[in-house]
């Protein structure tokens, strides 16, 4: 990057900042409550951070951990850290302190930046490699850790752009730890090339432009916010920060900041569609929502679109930098009814223009399954946006890359039109009397019941069938459906063996990124028993 | 490309076809008169062409020349030829046969595909390296050359996708010969990486999506149609072919085919704005026009936008794969008057998100000029979309790349906001009594005169001042302005020494790509005299 070659330039998402600071110095880059930074100010804060980190001895090959919600310092980290050749470790703020310790220590982070609200997650006595702490005082000034406050720390760095220390496209950019439903979190390694291309890919699929305003409902610690941390900056759009995912704030900011785009897990869409004033919402500009993480139920898609939103359903994993496939719209679908549209939209779709490779295969033979919407196989991917591997874990990397493809662990069918539809996580599928039952399929039907807010379906042991279906349900506020209502509702719409035999009402356990932790429900049901799957 | 690596994939624009044929098999890919090909049909024709070429012994490292207007075979060439590892040579159909012979021979093309209308350009006796000819019979069935007809030729190839023979991103993809105002045309070499990234860059800047319809007003032989040959396919939009640039056809197709995008040199915009029925035109959908090639006069911008078009002004050269910079819109410009808007829009602007590097420098010291809108320097560029060099011409390559940048040969200023504005070609600038006069600046003023359709300003010898300004003018139909009208009009708007001393009315000589050939006007004026510039 320092020695110019006329016809070659290292692809790096850090350069998006340079360009937007040059082209749009006075345009609004970041909004956070009352705070507003232009691209010039945003760049200067980033340069200060980069120089301050350099002053602390951070450079090529080092790691810097950030433990923050979606506030400006998190965005700044996405440029300042890789700019000086270091790698960013964005830690999930919803983890327990033991998990945080494991990640910070495993990543070899030398410096940790933590928001004061989450300072208690940092157990300094367990972190022998960390040399410095910086505390962000965003909502309160309490500081329990040694070291400087973030704004103070920025003042120690010059606002001049440092020399970028990026030599090669495959230089390590970030390590993102999987939320890991079982076992230790794994450190997924991203490089500059992958993040650059994936950020551009997200921009293309989402239709972001310089006049867009992007609301940060998706955690930035989740695949670097699906690379939108870089994509929004690339086109010179505005980042609207959101410290906590609260429906009132979401709707207020959509209105106040003219929000045109957001990304969200289906749980956030559920929150939006069940907001008490949801029926009164009419968006001023079309709100483009990109969702992924779990297949959204068709009912939820139609509810949220009724407000003036347009939902694009995508699918991906941490290992592929976030979304990799999109349920690309077909002109022939215009003729479908609203309900039919929601059904086709709930599929995981086809690869992005920039991701290109996805297939559904027999995970042992690697042979593609029939394109019949019936034959189940594992979703596999490859390409520039596939991680380079798990940090310090060659064994897991080799396993994930068996047969020359990345194995997603998701079971799916491929429809005759080439669209992929997830049936289940490999570990979640129910095998009842020899029949495969997709828990997702059963959940989608139950979501259609008017009294249901949220549902998770898991297998429970059964002497006759091996396992049978059980549904855990969160009813809508004020609703008290009976188990047989739900069971009958399902039987009317699915093969009888797919209907739940048991229903339980109550809260659902969730991961830090809002995914329902079916394994917890399952473990409880299978205590002391051995499940073959 | 044949041995999959999980985390790395060669960037190649050929893959856009694979993806669109998979995702949008039944969507309209190409329209040409009554002919309509879906993406599945388009891909099959391309695979047939690729296999037919292979059967003729074409493969890795070979060159194939196409001499065709904007018809389907030209689009097909952009995929079939590079797919099998060969390089495409798209020859300008407006050249003389001697120039065509030089290009075909210099490029080492082994096979030539020519449209029957242009078969007379092919002098087979001068082309010893060519082994096979194929004639496209698009408008007539006359065949003067030996060899097969194009559709017959396609039938000799299998419709199955061949194995792609693309090993590396920097593999040669195309050679595009500059129109060369002086001297022999030079063969500009493009690679797969550059074309992939530039095509994506054009898509981003133009806002192409799957629902777009793109009209081929820009010749595909010109920088591979600014890489839109690949970009339109990338997003699964529709290519609307246009054999000849005729205003009636342009407006008819915009209406019939719901055209949303086109690219055009300013001469095409002039043609559109002076079309007899121009004042009645009201676009159904916004027509996004990307223009470049010469700075469009502000008057023309406002005329065409009045029809419902939105003009994006870009700037580039063959050596940078077409447009490299864009006059990116600033929110603060909303407040400007229509005329002021047209003026800011006529600047060449800032680098694309994906091109990134452009500067205005002293071409000797390579020092950037002051950002004051006054200091003139040369526009230089570098990055992934800069050619790898001139084919078989290391000397010209070294000269063009002096100092680690590509030298455009365009003289410009940089405004305080970082926007570049071309003042002139290095060779066109007028030096009168020691003062630099930008011919473009003078032309822009004269374009504001109500009787002027087209104008070109050149220096003519003058005993006192060394050189002075002369304007060659094409008046609007039915208008007969007097020379002094024009001279006074200019003096009221510019420094007196910049006003033309002489005016001549009549036609203007143009290059094959529609650029006015000022050097021809200049040569006539300077016959027998020596110009220092």
Label this structure with key terms.
533 residues; 25% strand; eight-stranded mixed sheet; alpha/beta
Your description of this structure?
Two copies of one chain form a homodimer. The first copy, chain A, is α/β, with parallel strands linked by helices. The first copy, chain A, is built from 16 helices and 26 strands. In chain A, helix 6 (192-206) packs across helix 8 (228-234). The first copy, chain A, is globular, with a radius of gyration of 23 Å. At the A-B interface, helix 1, helix 6 and strand 16 of A face helix 1, helix 6 and strand 16 of B.
Quickly describe the structure.
The structure is a homodimer of 533-residue chains. Chain A has 533 residues and is an alpha/beta fold.
Topology summary:
The structure is a homodimer of 533-residue chains.
Chain A (H helix, E strand, L loop, with lengths): L13 H10 L4 E5 L2 E4 H17 L7 E5 L4 H12 L3 E4 L6 H10 L2 E7 L16 E5 L11 E2 H6 L16 E6 L9 E5 H15 L6 E3 L7 H4 L1 H7 L3 E3 L6 H10 L4 E4 L1 H8 L13 E5 L6 H8 L3 E9 L4 E5 L11 H8 L4 E2 L5 E5 L15 E6 L6 E2 L3 H7 L5 E9 L5 E6 L4 E3 L2 E3 L1 H9 L4 E11 L3 E10 L7 H9 L10 E4 L12 H9 L7
Parallel strand pairs in A: 1-11, 3-4, 3-5, 4-8, 5-6, 6-7, 10-11, 10-12, 12-13, 13-14, 25-26
Antiparallel strand pairs in A: 1-2, 8-9, 9-19, 14-15, 15-16, 17-18, 18-20, 20-21, 22-23, 24-25
Helix pairs in contact in A: 1-2, 1-8, 2-3, 6-8, 10-11, 11-12
């Amino acid at each position: 990057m320092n020695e110019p070659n006329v016809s070659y330039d290292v692809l790096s998402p850090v350069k998006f900042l340079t360009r937007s600071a040059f082209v749009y110095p006075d345009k609004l880059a970041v909004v956070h409550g009352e705070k507003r930074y232009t691209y010039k100010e945003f760049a200067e804060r980033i340069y200060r951070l980069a120089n301050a980190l350099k002053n602390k001895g951070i450079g090529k090959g080092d790691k810097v951990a950030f433990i923050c919600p979606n506030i400006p310092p998190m965005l700044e980290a996405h440029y300042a850290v890789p700019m000086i050749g270091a790698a960013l470790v964005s830690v999930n703020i919803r983890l327990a302190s033991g998990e945080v310790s494991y990640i910070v220590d495993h990543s070899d982070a030398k410096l940790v930046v933590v928001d004061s609200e989450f300072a208690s997650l940092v157990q300094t006595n367990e972190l022998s490699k960390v040399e410095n702490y910086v505390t962000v005082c965003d909502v309160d000034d309490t500081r329990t850790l040694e070291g400087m406050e973030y704004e103070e720390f920025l003042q120690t760095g010059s606002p001049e752009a440092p020399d970028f220390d990026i030599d090669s496209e495959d230089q390590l950019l970030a390590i993102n730890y999987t939320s890991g439903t079982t076992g230790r979190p794994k450190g997924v390694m991203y490089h500059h090339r992958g993040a650059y291309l994936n950020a551009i890919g997200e921009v293309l699929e989402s239709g972001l432009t310089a006049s867009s305003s992007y609301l940060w409902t998706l955690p930035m610690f989740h695949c670097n916010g699906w690379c939108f941390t870089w994509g929004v900056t690339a086109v010179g759009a505005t980042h609207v920060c959101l410290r906590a995912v609260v429906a009132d704030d979401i709707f207020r900011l959509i209105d106040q900041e003219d929000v045109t785009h957001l990304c969200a897990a289906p749980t956030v869409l559920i929150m939006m569609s069940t907001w008490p004033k949801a029926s009164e919402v009419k968006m001023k500009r079309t709100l483009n929502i990109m969702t992924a993480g779990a297949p959204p139920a068709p009912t939820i898609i139609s509810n949220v679109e009724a407000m003036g939103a347009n939902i694009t359903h995508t699918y991906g994993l941490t290992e592929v930098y976030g979304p990799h496939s999109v349920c690309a719209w077909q002109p022939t679908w215009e003729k479908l009814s609203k309900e039919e549209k929601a059904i086709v939209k709930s599929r995981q779709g086809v690869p992005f223009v920039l991701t290109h490779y996805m297939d559904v295969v027999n995970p042992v033979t690697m042979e593609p399954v029939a394109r019949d919407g019936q034959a189940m196989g594992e979703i596999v991917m490859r390409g520039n946006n596939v991680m380079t591997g798990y940090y310090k874990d060659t064994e897991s990397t080799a396993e994930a890359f068996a047969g020359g493809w990345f194995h997603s662990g998701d079971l799916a069918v491929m429809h005759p039109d080439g669209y992929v539809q997830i049936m289940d996580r490999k570990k979640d599928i129910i095998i009842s009397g020899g029949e495969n039952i997709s828990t997702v399929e059963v959940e989608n039907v139950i979501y259609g019941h008017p009294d249901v807010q949220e549902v998770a379906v898991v297998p429970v042991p059964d002497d006759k069938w091996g396992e049978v279906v059980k549904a855990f349900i969160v009813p809508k506020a004020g609703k008290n459906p009976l188990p047989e209502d739900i069971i009958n509702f399902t039987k009317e719409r699915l093969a009888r063996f797919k209907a739940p035999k048991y229903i339980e009402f109550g809260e659902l356990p969730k991961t830090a990124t809002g995914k329902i932790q079916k394994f917890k429900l399952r473990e409880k049901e299978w205590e002391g028993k051995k499940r073959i799957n």
